[in-house]
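Table 4 source record.
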Amino acid sequence: MSAALVVIFVIAYASIALEHPLRVNKSASALIGAGLLWTIYALMGGDHHVISENLTESVAATAQIVFFLMGAMTIVEVVDAHNGFRVITSRIKTTKITSLLWLVGFVAFFLSAILDNLTTTIVMISLMKKLLDRHEDRLFFAGIIVIAANAGGAWTPIGDVTTTMLWIGGQITTLAIMKGVFLPSLACLIVPLSFLTFILRGKEVIGPKEIVYRGDIQTTSFEQNLMFAMGIGTLIAVPIFKAVTHLPPFMGILFGLGILWLVGEMLHRNKEDDFKEHLTLVSALKRIDMSCIVFFIGILLAVATLEHTHILAALAKWLDTVVGRQDVIVTLIGLASAVVDNVPLVAASMGMYDMATYPTDSFLWEFMAYCAGTGGS
């Protein structure tokens, strides 16, 4: 059974890594892989009662991550629909491209720590289209935004999905990851920023002739500021909510989403339906990347079968025997995340190493958050 599970997982993993050449969405590969793995486990694993309990446990753990991501993505989409991020772009006035580069890099770095790196990258690159006219300049900025967003997401529990997984799994805590990974993450941004400053020195910012926000959807300055403050405040409050109530983070994000939903309904209650439709949370839920959510469900359930069948534990022992040093192993995971998706890598690593041996806030988990988060850049 173990050999069959490993072969199927490797094929599914390869299909995910080769998503673009194969022209098959990675979500489909992840779901098929999860379905096949659990089917084989159910047919050949023995005690069906134990297998059913394992599946229930895995679904519960996966649901916590999925609910959190759905809530966070919806909140960010609502802020963007209200032009809330104009609070940031309207204050960018510099004419030197190197100054703008550093400003954008640090905005992306700290914004990613509050939002998540994928959303930050999308938002910041969209903003660059409103600030830069030359395509070659946009490419330089897109590169630094990716680096800054990944570096910024690595040092907070809500900035990167892999860090969120470690946080929800109990491998790291909020203050410890911020204290341990902030300076390395900052260095990860400053080095490429310094390099690009040398390349782009002397250039001026050439902006587009006309800046248009959200087509014909207009929101007032009060609405923009309110939804920006509410959205960012909700995301920041989640770790505090977890620390005070000891409830899982997804409860905090769903609670905050409900409050934001209520505020939005009251804010637009006297407007025409056609005008406010785009601004509602119902509309925002339709615009979030559900294929990304489905991918997480598939890959996490797939990895769970390897954990329940003790394949990951055996892999950890083999790596310890062959490589020996955990820091080298985690570095290899970081390098691998440049080629393949870091979510299954971290999910597998969480199953490989026992928390009895590597307790919460161990160097292993913090280093993994850093390497997996920044390696994908």
